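re: that chain from earlier
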Amino acid sequence: MTRATGVGSMPGDDNEAFLTAVRVVLDELRELAHLPEVPGRGAIASMTGRGLAVVSGLGADLQPAGWRLTDASGVDHRRARSLLAQDLDVLEEQTDGYTGAFKIQVAGPWTLAACVEKHRGDKILSDHGARRDLAQALAEGLRDHVRDVRRRLPGVDRLVVQVDEPALASVLGGKVPTASGWGRHRTVHPPEASEHLEWVLGAIAHEGAEPWVHSCAPGTPLQLLRGAGARGLVVDRDQLSAADHDVLAEALDAGESVALGIVPSTAPERAPNDAVLTEGVLRWLDMTGLDQGLVGDRLVVSPTCGLAGASDAWARSALRLLRTTATSLTD
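^ sequence. v structure.
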């Protein structure tokens, strides 16, 4: 059975929009619903703010230049943690009786390191020890986060934790700008990148959840993600290289999951229908030499990226298209 899911973010700019997003997701994606993110509510609800809300043992605060580590949690860091707890309260209320599979998302260690500054400025990425500490603090925080979600969703028997790493390709390619904007941070070598991801993905797996990694950025090293412990890959089909297709086929053959981004994240001039989307997925399976009947529920369909920039109408339409496409693929 093919499932449909969302990448994470949804449109809106207030807590009412978050409640609406939860209801829309639960209505349209019952086979693999997810905790929506509504970054339009501000920095404390952004991917970075959300990630720092999960991190354990490190303080942070919001500065004019963005998030920065501090000796103790500042007011904005506390607000980010409070908002996450409030969102989980809403989720718990709305999912009363929910059973089956569910997905949550968190910013990954390399994306956080590329976005958050050290105590004295410049990105965490610039300091070997600081980026190690951040990855380990994220891993520890995720243990508590997964336990909390399990407590709130007792009917969920398959919990997926999606680690978002949109900046990973830039980190490995030495393309992240320094604070001055005149230079670039040094390349992080694959063994270190893999090790930090292993800590995070291993912590998720240790708590009995399923670690997936998402990136819609071209050049993301999918094989490195698998080697670090990812048991699911969330990708934009249109951004894949020939080698990426092979890696995804290997992952599915190995019993791992692939969420294939097939629906645009903002409304196109001409919206596809589920018949066109189904045919496209079947062509992809044929190209990679995979048997649809054997892939089963390991193949998931999703938007190409988050829906935060979409209209409310397109966000709902996109998720409905995914649901009907998944049904067509199953039939």
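The radius of gyration is 19 Å.
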